[in-house]
Amino acid sequence: MEDQRQGVEVRNKENRLLFMAEPINGDIILTLKSAGKEIKILYTDIPKLVSAAVKRKKRLKNKAERMIDNVHSPEKP
Questions:
Q1: Domain range for residue 29?
Q2: Following CA atoms 21, 25, 27, 29 in sequence, which dihedral angle do they give, to the nearest 10 degrees?
């Protein structure tokens, strides 16, 4: 039997593929392309990935602020 999966492709003005979405086992798999790399993620994983990125950004910001505070505060003997 022939595979009847249908997907959606999004391309830019130069006709380069930005991402493709295909249904798979009750979910949608997104294939993202950027800088010559291809990443495949499930649509339902996006909230977890965004949450992890936000936490990482906050952690890095706090670390940078602590480093700046250490540079500007006088050293104790």
A1: 8-72
A2: -30
